[in-house]
Design a protein that fits this description.
This protein is an alpha+beta fold. It has helices at residues 18-29, 59-66, 70-73, 152-165, 172-190, 211-216, and strands spanning 44-47, 74-78, 81-83, 89-98, 101-110, 113-125, 128-131, 134-138, 193-194, 208-209. The protein has two domains: 2-144, no CATH class; 152-216, no CATH class. The strands form two sheets. An eight-stranded antiparallel β-barrel has the order 1-2-3-4-5-6-7-8. Strands 9-10 form a two-stranded antiparallel ribbon. The radius of gyration is 19 Å and the shape is elongated.
Length: 218
């Protein structure tokens, strides 16, 4: 996928996502050089679309749902380690800041290759920054709060429960559950969420940001 290619980065395993992915990547490639400084942002998973935070606690599901898009729409910071959770793992060597402008000298690794590069951020707060033309907010922080009522996470939970109850065709309870599921699915589709994709196996259902929306954002 062309949107994932960057001459300054290399590819890591597709399912190495989130903070767990950063640790796995360190093992996979031997880890970056010893870091000297830390970025002026809190540790955690950051997302350019906070709907990506819905799968932040399940690395396998995030990898299955998004594959390479993880590297475009998320970043993770853990002490002096910075990663896009897919193809880039950097150890921060030196950080300088002038106003909102943050510049970091980093040793970055991927597939056994090492390179020194400059990462440039626009600091918004301790929980938000802009890089690569996107604003990233830390999942779980005030910056990533879903203000919709009900929240998308609540709708997903209700839809999964209703789908599980939509069994025993012909029973009044199952019919009610199926109708509830269909209604909730419609609400989620309106929010740009999909439970499957045309190229997914029939058994795979994971609520995620619809791939068509991500393609249009390339």
């Amino acid at each position: 996928m062309s949107l994932l290619r960057n001459p300054m980065t290399r590819m890591l395993p597709a399912k190495a996502t989130g903070l767990v992915g950063a640790l796995l990547a360190s093992v996979f490639i031997g880890g970056p050089s010893t870091a000297m400084e830390q970025l002026p942002f809190n540790d955690g998973l950051y997302a350019a679309d906070t709907r990506f935070c819905l799968l932040s606690e399940s690395d396998d599901q995030a990898g299955e749902a998004y594959s390479g898009w993880i590297g475009v729409w998320t970043r993770s910071i853990s002490k002096s380690t910075y990663t896009n959770n897919f193809e880039l793992l950097c150890g921060i060597q030196k950080v300088s800041r002038t106003g909102q402008r943050v510049k970091a000298v980093a040793e970055c690794s991927g597939e056994g290759d090492d390179s020194r590069t400059i990462l440039e951020f626009k600091a918004v707060s301790r929980n938000s920054f802009v890089i690569d033309g996107k604003r990233f907010d830390r999942c779980g922080s005030d910056a990533s709060i879903d203000t919709q009522i009900p929240t998308t996470a609540e709708l997903v939970k209700l839809a999964v429960e209703a789908n599980a109850d939509c069994r025993g065709l012909g029973s009044p309870e199952a019919d009610i559950a199926c109708a509830k599921r269909d209604l909730l699915d419609g609400f989620l589709y309106d929010r740009g969420m999909c439970s499957t994709e045309p190229d997914w196996p029939a058994s795979q259902e994971i609520w995620h940001v619809c791939h068509d929306i991500l393609r249009k954002s390339e």
